[in-house]
Amino acid sequence: MNEFDPVIEDIAKARGNYELLRKRGDEEAAALVVTQILEKYPDRPHALEFQADALRDAGKTAEALALYKKIITENKGWVATERKYADLVFKLEGSSAEIRQLMEADNLGLLLARPDAQRHPGTAAALSLLVPGLGQIYNGELTKGLWLLAWAAASLTVFVEFSTYPGARPGLTPVGYISAASIALCWIVCILDAYVHAPKGAAPAVKKTEKPKPPVDLPYE
After folding, report:
1. Other C-beta atoms within 10 Å of 156: how many?
2. Contact predicate 136/194, CB 8 Å
3. Cα distance between residue 49 and residue 78, in whole Å
4. Cα separation of 132 and 71, whole Å?
C-alpha cells in the first residue's frame, strides 16, 4: 500500500476536520464531513472505516459493528480495524450485563428474589422516582416496598378526596396540605432509602461467557 496515497491523505484531513468540529460541538457539520467523504470514495475501505468510527461516536453500536465486520472481512490484515471491532464488542458485553440478568431470569420477580443479583443504587432511586416503593422491591425489600407504596397510595387518595373545599371556594383544605406534604415526604424517603440501601458489592449472577475472539489469528492485546 502506498502510504502517500492522495485518497488516504484526503480522508485523514477529513478526519481531522471531523474531530475538530465534534470538539466544538457542531455534530451536524461533523456528520456532513463524513457524508462528503463517502460520496467521494464510496468503495474505499478507509472511507468506510471513517463512517464506522462516526457511527461508533454517535452511539450507533450495532451499525458500527456491522460496518467494521464488513471492512475486516473484505480486507485481510487490517489489525487496527479488527481491534476497534473487538474493543466495541467487549464494551457492549460489559454494558449489557444487567440486561442479560433480566433476560436469563424467567421474570423480573425471580431476579429480584435472588440475593446474589447485583443492584445499582442509581437504578433503585430511579425506580422509586417513578413509583414509590418500587426501588425497595428492586433491592429485594419486598415488605418495605409494599408498605411505602401503601403510604403513597393512601396519601394520594386522601389528597384527591379531601384537598378542596366544597363549592367554588379556592385553595387547599388543611387536610389537603397535610396529604400533599405526606406524598412529597413519602417520595423523598423512597428515593433516598432505595439509593442508600441498594446492596453494594454483590456479585452479578451472570453466566460467564467466553470473550469474543478478534477475527484474526493474532492475539488481542
Report:
1. 16
2. yes
3. 11
4. 49
Tens-place pLDDT, residues 99-115:
455 444 444 454 454 55
pTM: 0.45
Q: What is the largest CA-CA distance in the chain?
A: 87
- Closest C-alpha to 38, from 62, 67, 59: 67
CA 54-60-64 angle, 5° bins:
65
Q: Which residue has the cell 467521494?
A: 40
The three cell numbers of residue 75 are: 480486507
Span between the terminal Cα atoms of the chain, in Å: 25
How many CA within 13 A on the CB side of residue 151? 19
- Yes or no: say if 191 and 125 are a contact pair by the CB < 8 Å rule: yes
44 bridge partner residues = none
- Given the candidates 3.80.30.20, 3.40.50.720, 2.40.160.10, 1.25.40.10, the CATH classification of the domain at 6-95 is 1.25.40.10
**Helix-, strand-, coil-residue percentages of the chain, each rounded to 5:** 65, 0, 30
Q: What confidence tens digit (pLDDT) does each residue in 181-211 have? A: 999 999 999 999 998 888 765 444 444 445 5
Q: Cβ(35)–Cβ(42) under 8 Å? A: no
The domain locations on the chain are 6-95, 104-196
